[in-house]
Amino acid sequence: xxxxxxxxxxxxxxxxxxxxxxxxxxxxxxxxxxxxxxxxxxxxxxxxxxxxxxxxxxxxxxxxxxxxxxxxxxxxxxxxxxxxxxxxxxxxxxxxxxxxxxxxxxx
Length: 107
What we know:
Blueprint: E1 2-8, E2 11-22, E3 29-37, E4 42-47, H1 52-72, E5 80-85, E6 91-92, E7 98-101
Parallel strand pairs: 4-5, 5-7
Antiparallel strand pairs: 1-2, 2-3, 3-4, 6-7
C-alpha cells in the first residue's frame, strides 16, 4: 500500500494505492489496483495486455469486484472502473468501464 497527497484547486487529497486479492470465497474476486481517498471514494483498475477477449475478461472481473465491495463494505459505488490495455483506442464499455491503452496515461 502506498500513500500520496495531491493538491487540486487549493484542496489536498490523500490517495492510497492498494493491490487487492481475495480468493478465499472461491469466486476469484480480485483486481490489480484500487485507489482510495480519505473520503471513501475509490476506483478499481485491471491491467490486461492482451487483445479483446482479455479486455472483456477485465470488464467482467471489475464488475464482479465492484458488486462484492459495494454489497459487503462501507464503500459507495466506485468513481470509475478501468481496464488498462497495451494497444487500441480508448472507449467506455456499455457497462461504464473505461478501456484505456497505457499510452494514453502519459502527461
